[in-house]
Design goal:
alpha/beta; 6-stranded parallel beta sheet; 3-stranded antiparallel beta sheet; 13 helices; globular
Length: 317
Amino acid sequence: MEKIEHPSLNTSALSGVLDKNLKKLEKRLGVTLSMRGDSLLIDGSKTKVDFAKTYFDKLNDLGHQGHSLKEEDFGIALDMLEEGLKTKFDEYSPSEPLNLSRKSVTPKSLNQQEFIQAIKKYDLIFGIGPAGTGKTYLAMAMALSSLQNKLVHRIILTRPAVEAGEKLGFLPGDLQQKINPYLRPLYDALFDLTHTEQANRLIEKGIIEIAPLAFMRGRTLNSAFIILDEAQNTTKEQMKMILTRPGFGSKLVVTADITQIDLPQPQKSGVLHAMKILSGINEIAFTHFNDKDVVRHPLVQKIIKAYQKIESKLKKK
């Protein structure tokens, strides 16, 4: 058993509510953890205890440097060490929260943090990964933060209406009512991050526009934060169209789950084509998410792993 003194660590963040975070760290590190005042006791096999000690010593150093670590920082730091990014961990600095009108948003994993940093640095960003990894939510938070800080003048939220062909015509209501079900996830993220009255006011003024991808054709979008959601369901032609819409002072974030392509055969996904031909351009950022980044119900992470396992076997056949 190893004993570590950790007077500089945020004890409540380390343990979490009802020791939830401590139990999560125990599971990932493969050791038993217990806190006694300013001491952290680590028990388990020598290899795992040594790794855990390195991890907590590094965190303690960050505390000594004046960083106030939050619960999510413990997970991000562990992501770095598990992926062999020791040098990156030595330079780690906790992310500043995005303070929006309704709540504050901070990344909860290494990939989420890199996604936010990429959005700050680049004008075209691809966020690729499975459901529940925070791609759309974080993109929306960054869009609202950019609008709040007057970095852009408007927000454009769009996604392809995959079944918009003849099936759409059988839905009741006018055009707006027909397309709203396809855009609902964007509204959900928006209203979760901002007060309903404020969001509705911005939509009414046209400062926030939520529309199907087809509505973007022929437009030049200046000083806009554009989010293309569910991009795996775009055709090659649609993807080329949206990639050429940004004007001066604009930023485009493309999110996609390439495991859930709903395009009818033989159409090929525009996002897969774009990833292939644009990967060599240094001014474009690609962030790839995985099951570690899932922020929904814990069961979602297990479901994603199960599907990845069977899909991996099928590819090998």
